[in-house]
Amino acid sequence: MNLEIHNPELVQRVNARIQTGQFHDADELIEKALDALDQQASPAVPTGETGAVVLAALQARPYPDIDLTPPRVRLTRLRMRSPCRMKRSGPLSFVR
């Protein structure tokens, strides 16, 4: 198979990459480019993974200066009468 590149800027880019020694020829460059495209198209998290990956990332704490502990809030105490102190006035109603 023969491929033709009609864009002169693209030809320059391919030749520049080959001249740096990063790739031996255009075939290798195209193969690596296609592999990179395939990796981008694949999902970031494999489908077999569970929430363990997310949990591990959260526990790693990439931002240690951010405090993840929720603030403590003091709850007010409610005073309720116990049912035994209430007087019964009828079959279903209570009077205080």
Provide a short characterization of the protein structure.
This protein has a domain at 8-60.
Give keywords.
single chain; 96 residues; two-stranded antiparallel sheet; 3 helices; 2 strands; rod-shaped
Strand and helix map with partners:
Elements: H1 8-19, H2 26-41, H3 52-60, E1 87-88, E2 94-95
Antiparallel strand pairs: 1-2
Poorly predicted ranges: none
Structural class: mainly alpha
Largest sheet composition: 2 strands, antiparallel
The counted number of beta strands is 2
What percent of the residues sit in helical stretches (DSSP H or I)? 25-40%
Fraction of residues in β-strands: under 5%
- What Rg is obtained from the alpha carbons, in whole angstroms? 35 Å
* Shape designation: rod-shaped
Mean pLDDT metric: 77
Order of adjacent strands in the largest pleated sheet: 1-2
Question: What is the ordering of alpha helices and beta strands?
Answer: HHHEE
The DSSP helix count reads 3
Through-space gap between termini = 96 Å
Q: How would you describe this structure to a colleague?
A:
The protein is mainly alpha-helical and 96 residues long. It has a domain at 8-60. The protein is built from 3 helices and 2 strands, in the order αααββ. The protein has helices spanning 8-19, 26-41, 52-60; strands at 87-88, 94-95. A two-stranded antiparallel ribbon has the order 1-2. The protein is rod-shaped and about 95 Å long.
